[in-house]
Fold these 2 entries.
Entry 1:
Amino acid sequence: MLVQGKTYENYSCLNITNVDDADNYDLSIDSLESNVLPKHESSPKITKKRRNKVRPLKILNVNCQSIPSKVGAWRLLLSKHEPDVVVATETWLNSTIYDAELEADDFVIYRRDRERSTGGGVLIAVHNSINSTEIKTDCENAETVWAKLILTSQQNITIGACYRPNVADKTTTPTLKKIIETMLDKQHRNIILAGDFNYPGWNWSDMTLKPSCQHINLHEDFRTFLNENGFVQEVKEPTRDANTLDLIATNIHERVIKTEVLPGISDHSCVLTEISMRINRRKQAPHKIWLYKRADWQGLSDHIQSELKEIDNNLTVEDTWKMIKTSIEKGIVKYIPSKISKKRKSLPYISADLEREMNTRDRLESKSKKGGSKIEQRYKQLKRECQRQLRHEHYRYVENLLTDDGSQDHVSKKFWSYLKHKRGDTCGIGTLREGNHLVTEPTEKAEVLNKQFQSVFSTPTEEPLPYTDESDMPSITVAAKGVRAQLQRLNPYKAVGPDNISPRVLKELANVLSQPLAALFQKSLDNAIVPEDWKRARVTPLYKKGDKYLPSNYRPISLTCVTCKVMEHIVTSQMTRHLEENKRLCKHQHGFRKYRSCETRLIT
């Protein structure tokens, strides 16, 4: 049966019990369409999958006039615009200032500082979700720094930051010409050049020179340099008073989506450019955070005690460890609440009142460009007030980190974490170089660093230790009392090892875990076997000095299981006691001995 292109094999869909009575039923097209058409056709509709919107590459060009004195405003600028790349000029940094002090935790920083004088300085900050590496140049006559962004397997972008200190400078443009020629010869096809170039004589909207232009030849040389290399200057609006000083020039003008001039953190406005580029961004997976302050420690203790009431002595060392570990893991999930980490976008020291004032400042900045001396004067006054308040709120936030309870006698853990963070560079592992090959994938980076660390490890000697029958050391015995004492001395804030058991949990459960762990330690020593988890370590590469892309400039830091460290301490203490009591150590041995140190070695 065929009805408007739809086929029905029988009358069952019409609810007719007797086919002979079909003539008594209304079989018109309208009736069939309204009563008997199937709910689902044989050919389902094909719905197109919604493609994720590709986010453009956002580049922020900002003149800072001292980042250290404007850390709060600098952080706010990064948080507000969420750029992928930041080109900063007049950073006013030097070798005594760490990258971490800039509080750009999500960025890998490449910078060039002035060492012989104050002021100046340039940097490029690349978001750590984008693979990047620094490009070294031999030209010393210009304040520039260069970086290569590895966006996809077949697409890269070269970004340069430049600061031309004054309008009469004659060395920057010729130096840039040499650098660009070298870049193009080395297959750096997509180039973006940004910074503060100090060419106030150009009216970039119509490419004409102002009547008041000084050093016309230098201005013309810069335009010739851009034209010869196929660069287009994207910034058309003034960035400082009536002059366009902060520029972004590129030879991929067809990919530029838009360019905006926005309020900055100095007397210069900043420039934000969006470029249509597909980027393979690495996203950090959210992780679970245990809320130990809200834990039910008594319930967890009772759970562990019931689970480990009787441990079979016939179990192997590995099975005994797994039994203890599993009972702890189950108890943690049941009695300790947790939350999933979320990245905080708002800064902790920005109040609602300050945010409203900054929004008013931004609106006045837009109006001041249209003219009016009163509006411009009010804008400058409000801008100074916002900078003063922002600096004050940031300092007060850091000061509040000193104490948790308001007492000046107790320095909080947050403060020491903050201070430790500022003393080192914590940008993670950037792009590494192995020979002439750039390594960008995390797995490949781990393999390269692992190979480097193995190459510097010394091979243990196979010769047996000298044996003497004098004062043989007795067998090591592990008592629950000693294990309990060691667990209670643990620092609860230390990092976890490969077993994911926090020292905070071991310390809180010292009374119920001392006996099972003592039995495990004794069995491990008697059988000369350790669990597999104790043989593993979380190795963290620590950057020391030199070029960050060289694997040889990293040192390994290993995190092992806390329970393994407890047993190691017990073994070490008993061995040291035996050697001290039997005078088996040389009197000139000052290292790793109690009450002895480098100072005692020097005075003896």
Entry 2:
Amino acid sequence: MSVVFSFSPRRFVAIIVKEFVQMRRDRVTFGMMVGIPLLQLVLFGYAINSDPKHLPTAILDNDRSVFSRDMAMAMKNSLYFDFVTPLATEAQADEFLRLGRVQFVVTIPPDFGRDLIRGKRPAVLLSADATDPSATSNAVAAVEQAVGSVFNRDLTGPLAPLRSSDGPVELRMHARFNPEAVTQYNIVPGLMGVVLTMTLVIITSLAITRERERGTMENLLITPVKPIEVLLGKILPYMVVGYLQMVLIIVAARILFHVPVLGSLTLLFLVRFPSSWPIWGSASPFPPWPRTSCKPCRWPFLLSAVHLAFRFHVPLSGHARLGAMGGVGAAADPLSARGARYRPQGQRLFRHCPEPVADLPVSPRLARHRASALPADPGLDGRSRLRPSRSDRRIAMVSTLVSALRFDGLADGYDNSRPAPPAAVIDVLCRYAGMARPTRVADIGCGTGLSTRIWIGRAGAIVGVEPCDDMRRRARQSTDAVPGGETVRFVAGTSAATGLAPASVDIATCSQSLHWMEPEPAFAELARILRPGGVFAAIDADMTPSFGGPAEAAFFALRRRTKALEAQHRPTAVRRWDKAGHLARMEASGRFAFTRELLAHQIEPGSGLRLVGLALSLGSLAALLDHGLSEEECGLADLRREAAAMGDTPVPFHWSYRVRLGVTPQA
């Protein structure tokens, strides 16, 4: 008992000092004690990330409108998505997901912008490689937040009624390869490599070290057996053990975790053979150093830590290739790829796309709302005093595009039924401009070119500015059929961003379009492009022609009924400015030195068919019909009956016009 309890502090301290000396002499052990924690901390700290960002994403944009580009930019700005490539077809999107080239595919349907402004909550499809459910769920949540915020920010001012309590856009999620979000499908196959690495390195290292520890290594060395034969003879049996472990893991994964085993097991075993050599080979350099079986055990843990960290560091885009146990097809969805209606415009979203054409100099925040890629005008900033505020400019551009989308698909009926301004207006405008033949005339919001073509032969260069592709298509088609149509050029632009050079226009007109434009940005842009002493005219026709008879009364009734139904159902939230206030707003803008209002009249041949076409070209009626109201409710059925009674006999239609005119100050 005295021996047991005769504790000597001196001897105790000597043992402690001896252990520290032993640590100092055993440099390998000391290095591992210091290095392994730091190595694991750095590797795991940087590699393991449950909230990954910058995931490779592809987009299939079948709309290519300002709203679809806003949504894509909102997703990119969330930092979760990097758009690596644009797609052309749904088959291509499916292939990119299946091959693991992208983690997400965003499919925007045709007419996305048009349905959005009509309050129909268009659906956007987000197809995701859900092999890693935790990473996918964070990105999906970011999409929902980004989409809601971007449209709440854009739908302001006159567009505020477009907001919806349920969100302006419906997001549909298709989880590919793991639709039930089972985490075992991702973890268990990856653990196979980790388990095999740890066990095989330890077992193989101990097998060779045990020969030294028991003193049998010398017996092997004095035999005629070559060292390579000893090494291979020691390793190959454990290769068989490794394959048995693979079979055991696969069976356990199937029975315990219900992980589906798809594909060729033979191919899996063949691929495992070359990948196993580095594992078994990693054990062979260590036995010559240690003399006991305890020291080799340190190395497998170091290798396993590095191996595990690098497995966690595999990009999520590769999970479809490394961990997916099979694909599950997306559910049937009405979102299908159709021909894109709008050409790509504005800010570049993809790393592999060419640089965009320079646009008007606006801030990066406003760059999301660029409606068209137009050349920048030199010296635009030189007259910055004429530029409206950024918020007004932003609202004007989006609002103009929204109103343009309302007439998408109505171009042919519009061109056949609407009246052209009277030729007498040209003489009046030229007189106020002080020239018989203007050098350049710009028709802003030109539509199908009815008010643009009247200048053929009366001006040197004629430019029609129109944001709607369908309208410009019809304008180009109709103008090419007119002699001298080659002098007319149609460009994409808005009332707030025409793309025309400063002081380059003698006369600018807005025919049946100023009431869709935000006044202050529009007047600022007009003042910018007009030369000193230039003339602007807003030409508005009374859309009910005078010809007498029951059909005219039916047309009046239709106009009154559509106005009442618009107030009741609000089929669209696009703001329409009162035409009677055009002159007052022109005077209040301070952009014009002289303003006045003129009256004009014109007679054109009409018929019952043209009267019905004129009604169908009205944006208010088209919005109500798209909203689900019937022709009977809108009064169109009554008009059709009265128009049919008119027959095809030409009837003179008397049109009345109001021209609000303004002259810019002289230099």
